[in-house]
Write a structure and sequence with these properties.
By secondary structure, the protein is of the alpha+beta class. 38% of the residues lie in helices and 38% in strands.
Length: 254
Amino acid sequence: MSDQPSRNILLLALVGLILVSVVSISFSGLRGLNTQMDTVKTIQVSGTGSVSAAPDEVIIYLAVQTQDTSATTAVNENAALMAKVMQALTTLGINQSDIQTSSYTLTIQSLTSTTYPMQNIQPSSKSNATTVQYVATNAIQITLTNTSLVGRALDAATNGGVNEVNGITFTFTPQLTASLQKQAIQLATQDAANQAEAIAATLGLKIIGPTSITPSYNQPFYQTSAAPSANPTPIEPGTLQLTAQVQTTYEFTS
C-alpha cells in the first residue's frame, strides 16, 4: 500500500513533463509560422534608356518583272535582264554574296478584251477575246554596310533592268546593335534606380537592393521607298534610336 502514493506522484510528474513538452513544441511552431508570414517589402519600377546612332546597314529590295504570251520568253527575258543587273551591281563594287534572291515567281494573267461591231453596237453583238500572259518576277535584296552606296546602287540596278523598287530598310549591324544595347541598358538601369530612390526618399524608406531585373529592347529600323530620278539618287539615312527598358523590383525596409 505504501508504494501506491509514490506511483501516483511519478505518474503526475510524467504527465506534467509531457504537457510542458507539448506547450514548448506549440510555441516553437508558432514562431516558425510567424517567420513564414513575414513578407519581403518591394517596389517595382520601369526604367528607360535610349541612344541614337547613324545606321550602318541598309537592305534594298528590287525586282525584275517581265511578261509575255510565252512562258519561255518571259522567263528568258527576265534572266537576261537580271544578269545585266547583277553585272551592274558587281561593277559598282558590291559583292555577289551581298545580293540574295528573296523570291521568284511565274504567274498567269488572263486578259479579256471586248469588241463591238462598228455599225450595230449592242451588248448582244459584242465578242470577247481572252489572252493569256505569263509574268515572271525575280526579286532580290542587296545588303550594304556602306550606306553611301545606296543611291548609286539604285541607279545601277534600274539602268541594268530593274523595274520594281520595293523599298529600302536602314538598320544596325549585330555588332553595333550589341554596343548600343549595352549603353541603353546602362541608362535604363540607372533610370530605374533613380526612380526607386526617389520613391523611397519620399516615403521615408530605405532601399536594400534589387531582387529581380528584366530587360527588353526594341530593334530599330527605318523603311523608305525610292524612285530613281537623279544621278545618283539622293538617299539620306539619318539616325535611328535604340531603346532599352528594365522592369526592376527593389527590396526596401522602413
